[in-house]
Amino acid sequence: MKKILLFAVAMLFVTIGQAQNKNKKEAVKVDFYGIDFSDVNVVGAAETEDQFMTAFGGINHLLVSEQDKFDIAKFLKLDVVSLDVEHATSRVSALEDVKFKDTKKIRVPLKEIIETYPTTEGTALLLVAKELNKRTNMGTFTVVIFDGKSKEIISEKEFKGKAKGFGLRNFWAGALYDGLKSVKSK
Asked: Rounded to an integer, what distance in angstroms lies between the CA atom of residue 165 and that of residue 159?
């Protein structure tokens, strides 16, 4: 009798496991373009725009060199099939008359930002930096998932993170990391 009962319980667990596997969604496959800093507003910082431009390129390159730490796939529950930060980095260095600091500017719509990215056949992912506030030590970013061909926005979500670390690059990379951890927990 015990053997029959144990067998029935085991079959119940197998059946439940199969049902759960059917309900699991497959992760969305995305081409990841890094972080676009072209429209960021930096509040209360003493560093120059040139120093920030260098830091922004460095943060994007951290996504490549420290993929284990900045594991976008894990944080956002996506399947990142390619990572190319060069376009995001070049957008910042190509800006003329750069003014990141303490500006009261009209925000560039996300659609206009993603229009500048390469056309792909699949789904694309971009992080857009909105504000880096030295007074509050907080960074605000938006995750944008869009169709790589039509550039239509599929999903967007804003998140914030607490900045920490030594040096300009690491300080604001800390805000990104902290914010991504909060996105993961939601």
From this structure: 19
Please identify every stretch of the chain with a pLDDT value under 50, giving residue numbers as ranges: 5-16, 19-24
What is the DSSP track for 6-52? HHHHHHHHHHHHHHHHHHSPPPPEEEEEEEE-TT-EEES--S-HHHH
Between the alpha carbon of residue 58 and those of residues 29, 66, 103, 121, 162, the distances in Å are: 26, 11, 23, 28, 18
In the chain, at which residue ranges do the beta strands (DSSP E only) sit? 29-36, 41-43, 79-83, 123-133, 138-147, 153-162
Read off the DSSP letter of residue 106.
Answer: P
pTM: 0.81
Greatest alpha-carbon pair distance for the chain in Å reads: 82
Please give the C-alpha separations between residue 122 and each of 28, 78, 125, 149, in angstroms, as whole numbers.
10, 13, 10, 7
Q: Helices 168-184 & 49-65, crossing angle to 10 degrees?
A: 50
User: What would the pLDDT profile of 122-159 be if each residue is shown by its tens digit?
Assistant: 999 999 999 999 999 999 999 999 999 999 999 999 99
Burial class (CB in 10 A: 0-12, 13-18, 19+), 35: buried
**β-bridge pairing 123-133 and 41-43:** parallel
Measured distance CA(156)–CA(130) in Å, rounded: 13
